[in-house]
Prior knowledge:
The chain has about 325 residues and is α/β, with parallel strands linked by helices. About 40% of the residues lie in helices and about 15% in strands. Helix 5 packs parallel to helix 6 (about 160-165), helix 9 (about 235-240) packs antiparallel against helix 11 and helix 12 (about 285-295) packs across helix 13.
Amino acid sequence: MKISLGVPPGPHARPLAQHAENLGYDRIWLFDSAAIYEDIWIHLAQIAEATNRIGLGTSVLVPSLRHVMSTASAIATIERLAPGRLACGWGTGMTARHTLGQKALTWKYTRTYIEQIRALLLGETVEIEGQPCKMMHHPAMGKERPIEVPHIISAFGPKGVAIAREIGDGWIGSMDPPEPFDWAVRMLPGTVLDPGESPYSERVFNSAGVWHSGVWHSTWEWDRDTLPSIPGGAAFLKSIEQNPVEPKYFSVHQNHMTHLNEADRCAYASIDGKPEWSVWVGEADQILEKAQEAQANGVSDLLFTPAGDYLREAEAFYNAVKSLQR
């Protein structure tokens, strides 16, 4: 089992990466959502220069946020700074595009973009917006082609999983893999409780609660009419509807996966602050048991995505599961 850490690119990213490297984590992955986080490539470059061993990753890149040549050049830059340490995760951009009022990308668009990236990095010429393009960097101005990095794809339905199988080097997602992959990365939020700590303490809400609230955020986007049937959903919906801020998705995704927003707090209050956690919450032995179950279900890389006190969370999780590491 590989043990990885996933965080938003922001002020805490570099010191957290250094801490993760010292602890023994295999890789640190940064998220890509321009409306709520800082730039992923700037922070990856900073981490590359501030660390020596730990792998780097993107979980996950959203093709529509950048021109394909810009992304190819960014990948080449990280490969020059940290040769062989980068892995690129890709997705259709559900949350990242929802924060912009857009739907997720089509798989056709996403596949074409990834295939263009790979070709450009190999030094090939590809057609982009009706014109032939290639990376023309002089050897003194960037890493020479060919440049090869692994690409893993976030997919859940049969079409996306088939594309991950056809053009990817692995799979990444927020559940156990839907079918066997040699490299299967499971993103998992939550927190390791201190011995005897309540699973509903303020600390837990500022860590695990930030991620559990994604249930309301995603349901608002995908199936809004069912929100009232979800614990806390009616209060969440009422808070969004009463908020004068327009468009409504601004309020829904405010502080997404980093801090609780007003609607999240209303939802938790409506269920007396005792949700049935959708994320991993438990003492160290319980977290280890969950990790062993994930491993048995085909997960080869545990990607822990903390919030709150990032340094504390990273250390507690690693210590809980490090016996599985290889």
